[in-house]
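INFO  loader      accepted 1 record
INFO  loader      residues=142
INFO  predictor   begin
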Amino acid sequence: MTAKNLLNFFDELLEEPEKYGSVEEMTSKSLSLFNELVEQIKHSTPEERIKINDQLEEASRKMSEKFEGMCQQYGISRAQMESMMNDPSNFNSETWGSIQNLKEEIEEGRKDLVKTFNPNAEKPTKKAKKKGTSKNKKWLTA
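INFO  predictor   done
INFO  writer      dumping tokens
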């Protein structure tokens, strides 16, 4: 199952980051697994989606725990670590580009899933005009 593959990948990544060489390789592998997972979710039954969701929640919990452990190891808060990770000056331009591309691709995959399961979601809603009101009310006092 791809959700488990993704979890295993992140476990490996956090335990042995040198195994993947560069951030570009890590982001490429992450994106590949994420795209496989999106396709698996799109073609799964409701029961399978529940199981996948449970696995993803477990993966998220484990990753959060590991992230907290890394913060403690370096003696910084979660907010400080997140701030460092979101600062482009902490990365070379190629690495920063790979990270941003991964974020964009994941957001596109999320939107694709939302459209698949809720076609009316994320459509802009039209606001009805109020009849009989005007922004310029001075004309009434003249």
